[in-house]
Amino acid sequence: LKHKYIMRNHFGKYPLIRVDFKCTQKFRNSEEAVYCFREVIHNTFVQHKYLRKSDRLTLKDKRLIKGWSYGSYDKFYGQDVTNSLYKLSIILYKHFQSRVFVVVDNYDFPSVSAMLEVKDSKELNRVVKFNMGIISKLLTGDYKYLDRAVILGLSYVAAAGVYPIEEVHSCKFLGDHPFVEYFGVTRLESDNLFKKDEFNLTKREIEKAHDTLNGYVNPRNKVVYNLYSVLQFVNSKGLRNFYISTEFTKNFKWLFKIKTIREHIETLVKGGSIDIVMSDVILVDDMINLRNAFFNSRMQEHFNINLVFYFLMEQGFLSYDTQCHSESSNGETALLKVPNEEIKLVLALKLKEYYDGIYRTDKTLLKSCANFFDTISPSALVNRAHFKKALYWFYKSLDQLLTCVGNRFGKLNEGDVHRILFSTLYQVNFRSNDEFRVSINGTSSHLDILLVKEKFRIMMEFKLNSTSVSILELMMNKFSETTSTMLQNQTLKKTQKLLLFAIGIDQDFHLSVSCVSISNQFKDAFHIPE
């Protein structure tokens, strides 16, 4: 052995309780949850069957070890379950004549599972309290038996505040602590992994991975990447989205029914930031309300939206935007943003699904609009007649989409126009997300949009109370003034073609579209209607 001395003098000489709360059994109420907790405790006691031969333990101690280590543990209920791990710590202390080390893994797994499976709020309350009660008893039952403990889990929100344990120091995801980089891989580690010969990744593929998977930032600008996403990319060279089909993302539609939450998500997808108060004091009632927000359409506007976004951050959907965060009367106020293109796409597609359901979007018309962007290429611009025909059908399809929404709601407002455009753009992204990226900035009445395809870009601008002709003229003037600066950008140098594209809605809500290619020095612009 390489470390003989360490193994001989330390291995097996210290008492350790390692308990993993991740159980295989699903449960729908607190009674069924007891089976989960029994399984967890049984798996922990099995690691210590050797204690039955200890000459330092009483017969009662050995009976407890036997009872939990073998098939008879289904007879334990209530306090017998809650106190089980605490009693194990006493037994280990007796045997080793030394204080016990504790490692608790997936401490929040039963509570998070209950959020998904247990529909009754009172039953959910019981499960969470049972979950945290076992841990609390182990850690606070009698400090003379315990040396120190490490507690690992995913969600601070889902299980915090039930039994406050002052002695436990919390190291949250993206928190301001020395262990933040252990929550994933650093940019340097990701880059070193991408460049390994066995993965055979091109420079462009590596750049694309960094753009898409770019890490999460904590208040001190420490950056971590999602380890799962990084490993998935190097194994498959594909940027398939891990978050798109989780239990929580499937239920975003309930969140979007709360107007304030929906508006915040819209801001985030457009590249903006939101201010959120993140409190350390989280009660069981808060967690139950959070669950209802994800799974219950009857939530009201007064719901604590801060908790929703705090939870979304620890689930990997949000990151700190700047190092600036201040103290408020209720907790810490933080500026949050979407961390990368991977997450932005998830939120954008979920918004699109919600919009399509609300507006009953005609999928044929939506597909027709998307086809225009999918078929744009440098070669397509050469054939003016073909391109103009494609632009005309885009105009007709978009106009019909807007008309249908206007007829359905009795009028068409700027928010409706923006959301139809949003659905159109992300219909494209959904169909070819490996080669197509959408960036949106602005407001509901004015959007700056950048569509990026391989070696090709479309710079779009949308305005209300304007015509596409006037918008395009302003874009051309602005672009001419900044051409020399933009050409110094390495990404733009690689771009063979650039199309300026304008969408206008005038005061009477009449649609117009215009576009021109940079390659012909802004000559022969297309305008529909002419």
Biggest sheet descriptor = 6 strands, mixed
Low-confidence residue ranges: 323-330, 490-495
How far apart the termini lie comes to 82 Å
User: Which percent range fits the helix content?
Assistant: 40-55%
Report the C-alpha radius of gyration, rounded: 29 Å
The average pLDDT score comes to: 80
Summing up helix and strand content along with how strands pair, one would put the structural category as alpha+beta
Strand content: 15-25%
| Number of domains as seen in the coordinates | 4
Gist of the model:
This protein is of the alpha+beta class and 530 residues long. Helix content is 48%, strand content 15%.
Provide structural commentary.
InterPro entries: AAA-ATPase-like_dom. It comes from Graphocephala atropunctata. Pfam families: AAA-ATPase_like. This is AAA-ATPase-like domain-containing protein. The protein folds into four domains: 4-151, no CATH class; 180-240, no CATH class; 244-342, no CATH class; 360-528, no CATH class. Helix content is 48%, strand content 15%. The chain has 21 helices and 15 strands. It has helices at residues 4-10, 30-46, 59-69, 78-82, 84-96, 109-117, 121-140, 187-194, 203-213, 227-236, 247-250, 252-256, 259-269, 284-295, 305-314, 341-359, 363-375, 384-409, 414-431, 468-487, 490-493; strands at 16-20, 100-105, 146-151, 216-217, 223-224, 274-278, 319-320, 326-328, 331-337, 437-443, 446-453, 456-464, 497-505, 511-517, 526-528. Strands 10-11-12-13-14-15 form a six-stranded mixed sheet, sandwiched between helices. A hairpin with a 2-residue loop joins strand 8 (326-328) and strand 9. Helix 18 (384-409) packs across helix 19. The termini are far apart.
